[in-house]
Specification:
Helix content is 39%, strand content 17%. It has helices at 27-32, 50-58, 80-97, 112-132; strands at residues 2-3, 9-10, 15-20, 36-42, 69-74. The radius of gyration is 28 Å and the shape is elongated. The termini are far apart. It comes from Shewanella algidipiscicola. This is Aminoacyl-tRNA hydrolase. Belongs to the prokaryotic/mitochondrial release factor family.
């Protein structure tokens, strides 16, 4: 079981794992062993609540494909287990991020004092610029 939040848990079989060769420096070990972990999760075929599915599909994230799959590749470590754990943590944080609803912003008016200070500052800047203007000589 993969725990996303207090209410939401996913079955292990819903995640598909692929282990591929990492790119970059690492020498002979890296060329022989498949240490990079790639997690694939199909949003539409999952047991996630409908609200989570809609929010994930609407989210602008490079890890979410147009076909509705989350693909997370991790190759930070030379260890397959460490890469798998990192990819799983990234997946959990991505799914949990759509569960939070942002507070609705309440529009406020500027106070009378702030409006007065703003106008005074504008007048002061205008007066300073007016003093810089050279008067033409006759």
């Amino acid at each position: 079981m993969i725990k996303i939040s207090n209410r939401i848990e996913l079955q292990d079989h819903e995640l598909e794992w692929q282990f591929i060769r990492s790119s970059g420096a690492g020498g002979q070990h890296l060329n022989k062993v498949s240490t990079a972990a790639q997690l694939i999760f199909d949003i539409r075929q999952s047991s996630l609540p409908e609200l989570y599915q809609q929010r994930l599909l609407a989210k602008a994230d490079h890890r979410i494909t147009k076909s509705g799959k989350i693909i997370i590749k991790c190759q930070a470590s030379r260890s397959q287990d460490a890469n798998r754990q990192t990819a799983l943590e990234q997946f959990i944080s991505l799914v949990a991020s759509v569960g939070h609803t942002a507070k609705k912003r309440i529009a406020t008016k500027p106070t009378k004092g702030s409006q007065k200070r703003r106008i005074e500052a504008k007048k002061q800047r205008g007066a300073t610029k007016a003093l810089r203007q050279g008067k033409p000589r006759d």
